[in-house]
Amino acid sequence: MIAFDQKSTLDKMPAERGVARPGELNGEVALSLTDVAVTRGRTNLLTDINLDLARGQMTALLGPNGAGKTTLLNCAAGKNILSSGSVTLNRQAIHRLRPLERARQMAVLPQQLSLNFPFSVEEVVTLGRYPHASGHELDKGIVTAVMKVLQVDSFAQRTYTTLSGGEKQRVQLARTISQLLVSSELAVSQDAVLLLDEPVAALDMPHQAILMDLLTKLCRQGLTVLVVLHDINLAAAYADNVALLNNGVLQSVGEVSEVINELLIKQVYGIEVSVIDHPLTGKPLVIR
Amino acid sequence: MLSRFQAKTIYLLLIAFTPVGLLISVCVGPVAISFAQFLSVIPHVAQFSPPDDISMAGIYSIVTDIRLPRTAMAWLVGASLAMSGAAMQGLFRNPLADPSIIGVTSGASLGASIAIVLVGDSLLPLAGLSTLVIGAFIGGILAAFLVYRLATGSAETSTNGTSVATMLLVGIAITALAGAGNSLLAYFSDNDMLRRISLWNMGGLDVANGLRVKVAVLIIAPTLLALMYFRRSLDAPLLGEPEARYLGVDVQRVKVYLVLLVSIGVAASVALAGVIGFVGLVVPHILRLLMGPSHNYLLPCAAMGGGLLLVLADSLARVVVSPAEMPVGVITALLGAPLFISLLRHRREYGML
């Protein structure tokens, strides 16, 4: 059921001291957070965040509730909430980019969306093509292709507001992904960065796999993904790198096998777990 | 499944029916004008020269002095209210929004009352426009500006710029405040003033004349065209403001311009024709039920639909109790509400609430 690409993680250099900056492993940095801190009143939501996302890699952001994952994602998305530090997207300061320029390079899917206007599913997905002046023909092709992969094409003409939670989530995923594509063969634009906040929370297992497979496939073409996940095993199976956030501090950043271990999980989540090798894939598998 | 019409079909139908509606409005009234009479008077209207024939000259002056200005003003006011309503419902992501949501209508109402009670209509008629019209226009703009400033001021610390939710609440507060001012003025006014205030609040297009139409064309028409410019940027904000930003929409800019355009257009409409309810709230909903919520077609269709509804309602208002007139707001509600309710009953899934 769960497919993944083992090779792509095996031929990478091992990182030093467990706090690797993934970007250094693979040349080009697509998205970079440098010395980012977010303070609200006297509370430090994020402290001293340094995170480089290398082009073509999927980084899973893990951490307990309230660790600051969504805040970190908002910073990465260019929201103007930084108390200090800087964020660069494709080597440009993200807050200097005009909204359209940014939207052509980066798509973001937040955790919660409330759309209560009676758009059809296809119209919602087509909104993802808003930043591009790519013409009706190509837009239609991309939208149709993405809807097919995420299996929302069967209800493309239904009203969005009547869908179930999981169906809505898939429609929004289709919209967000179609924002970064350049052809109906699912080719992704070369400077594309995708930020997803708990995209699988409402999805059943087959659709989780479909989404993660699609992301893996797009990453191989150069898409850079930062995805907030709660399922450590899902992250271990698909992500190239893992960033573990706790109390607003990046506890550990690095390859899956370095970050996901019993000690760190105990430290961050406060629970005793066993980490074994997955019998088929050799990836870490967390069991209680 | 979605059982609605192609947006383009509705769009083309409205384009086709607009001239019919305008023609009906020009021909219908206490003095009925036949289609043949209308055709024969058209060349004279185009050349601004009354015909020699006495009876035709009468028709000529009815058409040029009364019916054409009235029809044009009805269309512009209806178009402005409905298009502004559609834009505000989209911007506020709220089905209950209408043009009055940013306080324009109540501000205009207060401005009109102040003009009637405190200034007196005979004083300083500027360029032929009554103080009432000017007072209402200024009142409407000031109220909208106040709402916008207050909503922006309170949101400065957050990252959102002007908070739409705050604007909604401030709008309600300003509306209540203006309502209190209105009541206070009504309390201190005499019978004649009271009657004029309540007549103005009912709205009507019988006040249309050449000058008012010129004002309407100069102020309302440009706001309609400018609103059209935003028809593609209004869909993304329905997902939410941050999401619209992620899609490349400069939400703050869209908000500022929309509020500005709507307050100018609606303040002018209300100042010229009084408070005409229902059009701004329900026409966009009817159209959304028929053709879906995409603003690309919704905005122009709302303008044409609102214009058409008000033109036809005004025609009806002239004939049902002829030679007297019924307030046009009564007609718009009587025409539109049953249609709206029946549409809603057949489309439960529309439920935006």
What does this structure look like?
The complex is a heterodimer of chains A (288) and B (353). Chain A is built from eleven helices and twelve strands. In chain A, strands 6-7-8-3-9-10 form a six-stranded mixed sheet, with helices on both faces. Chain A is globular, with a radius of gyration of 18 Å. Chain A has helices spanning 7-10, 22-25, 69-76, 99-105, 121-127, 136-149, 165-178, 205-220, 232-238, 256-259, 262-269; strands at residues 29-40, 43-54, 58-62, 84-89, 92-93, 106-109, 193-197, 224-228, 241-246, 249-255, 274-277, 284-287. Chain B has helices spanning 7-27, 35-47, 54-91, 104-119, 131-154, 164-187, 191-202, 210-229, 241-246, 251-273, 279-291, 295-319, 328-346. Chain B has a single domain (11-345), classed as ABC transporter involved in vitamin B12 uptake, BtuC (Orthogonal Bundle). Chain B is globular. Helices cover 72% and strands 0% of the residues of chain B. In chain B, α3 packs across α11, α4 runs antiparallel to α7 and α5 (131-154) runs antiparallel to α10. Chain B is built from 13 helices and no strands. With 353 residues, chain B is mostly helical. Classes of the chains: A alpha/beta (288), B mainly alpha (353). At the A-B interface, α4 and β6 of A face α9 of B.
Give the helix tally of chain A.
11
By oligomeric state, this entry counts as heterodimer
Largest sheet of chain B: none
The sequence of SSEs of chain B as H and E is: HHHHHHHHHHHHH
Helix content of chain A: 25-40%
Please count the beta strands of chain A (DSSP E, at least 2 residues each): 12
> Based on CA inertia axes, which overall geometry of chain B fits?
globular
Overall pLDDT of chain B, averaged? Answer: 85
Q: Write down the secondary-structure element order of chain A.
A: HHEEEHEEHEHHHEHEHEEHHEE
| Beta-strand share of residues of chain A | 25-35%
